[in-house]
Design brief:
The longest helix has 27 residues. The protein is an alpha/beta fold. The radius of gyration is 21 Å and the shape is globular. About 45% of the residues are buried. α1 crosses α6 and α3 runs parallel beside α4. The strands form 4 sheets. Strands 3-2-1-4-5-6-11 form a 7-stranded parallel sheet, sandwiched between helices. It has a two-stranded parallel sheet with strand order 7-10. A two-stranded parallel sheet has the order 8-13. The chain has one domain: 3-Layer(aba) Sandwich (Rossmann fold). It is built from 12 helices and 13 strands. This is Epimerase.
Length: about 350
């Protein structure tokens, strides 16, 4: 049973939710919350420790406190939150390496809990309907958070071979949405006009921020679970999400999606990568049997309910957005054939 917990990423939104939720568990004697900047939100009874997991000092903190459970939540999803892709990769990959090296040397560590992502499965036209935990991606993530998470999971597997006495729980979450969280996907759906891949209507799963917190707490305080997919029940499609938001859509040929994404990224409104564009075109499905049978989690929000909670906090982009959205979407639909003919001529 966890007594002294060290968590990373407390200054991020989900880290704050987790720290407050874990603080309510009387069986936890002490919580050390590590990050490079002070958290802008309450963290319950967790003790904030200003430290960088890329620095070997993290090992001294673990040893001196007698930490028995390490919870790694500091794999960063969006480069704009860290100042660029190079910094994001350094924090995600180098930071994880240093943290695991510290855990390997600390005899007190008995459990490691890692927040991972279903993004490690990638997105392609060759994917199965759903991925189980023992499946490999058909097309490996090539950029960004997905690629970093593949490397992080590789380091965790290496750590488990070197320290077979340490229990490992690694949760692969579907895209997280909710009333307060900001991610690349929520930024995308917050755009005044939503660019969608022409000819595609991807289906995917989501998970609510509150269910993420509950899953992480269960992995911390309950039995070890190994690798578990976590998502809300059911699926939504890209066009269903746009309809729920009452946002106009702009069909974009897949060949031009990268250029459009680059322009949007330059404005700072949303972050786009090649893997995110593939996700918007092909979607992703994950099997959640182990979530129920091993982790013992029944999500409080379905995929649709989670998205509707996110949608409820968005303000209308402009007055009369419903009417404008209907008009723009209708006009865009009428240009699909013309755009397709143009790109057919370019390719021929």
């Amino acid at each position: 049973m966890a007594r002294v917990v060290l968590m990373t990423g407390v200054s991020r939104y989900l880290g704050g939710l987790y720290a407050r939720r874990l603080s309510a568990d009387p069986s936890i004697e002490r919580i050390l919350a590590v990050d490079v900047v002070p958290p802008p939100h309450p963290i319950g009874r967790a003790e904030f420790v200003r430290a960088d997991i890329r620095n070997p000092m993290i090992g001294r903190i673990i040893a001196q406190a007698g930490v028995d459970t390490v919870v790694h939540m500091n794999v960063i999803a969006t480069p704009k939150d860290t100042g660029g892709r190079a910094t994001q990769k350094e924090i995600n990959v180098i930071g994880t390496m240093q943290l695991l090296a510290a855990c390997q040397k600390a005899e007190s560590v008995q459990r490691l809990v890692v927040k991972s992502t279903a993004g490690i499965y990638g997105s392609s036209s060759r994917d199965p309907a759903v991925f189980t935990e023992d499946m490999s991606p058909k097309v490996m993530p090539r950029t960004g958070w997905g690629k970093d998470s593949v490397e992080v999971e590789g380091y965790v597997r290496g750590f488990s071979r070197r320290r077979p006495d340490v229990e490992i729980s690694m949760l692969r979450f579907a895209n997280v949405v909710g009333h307060g969280i900001h991610t690349a996907l929520t930024d995308y759906f917050s755009l005044p006009v939503i660019p969608v891949p022409l000819g595609y209507d991807a289906r995917f799963q989501l998970v609510h921020e509150s269910d993420v917190t509950e899953a992480m707490v269960r992995a911390t305080t309950g039995p070890s679970v190994g690798i578990v997919n976590v998502a809300g029940d059911g699926f939504v499609t890209l066009l269903q999400c746009a309809a729920i938001l009452r946002r106009p859509i702009m069909p974009v040929p897949v060949q031009a999606a990268g250029a459009v994404g680059g322009l949007i990224r330059q404005t700072g409104m949303a972050d786009f990568s090649a893997d995110q564009i593939a996700f918007l075109a092909f979607g992703r499905g994950i099997d959640t049997t182990r979530m129920r049978t091993v982790l013992g989690l029944e999500p409080t929000h379905s995929t649709r309910a989670a998205f509707e909670d996110f949608a409820s906090r968005l303000r209308r982009s402009v007055p009369g957005a419903d009417e404008v959205g209907d008009a723009v979407t209708g006009a865009a639909a009428g240009t699909i054939a013309a755009i397709s003919r143009v790109f057919e001529r370019i390719q021929s």
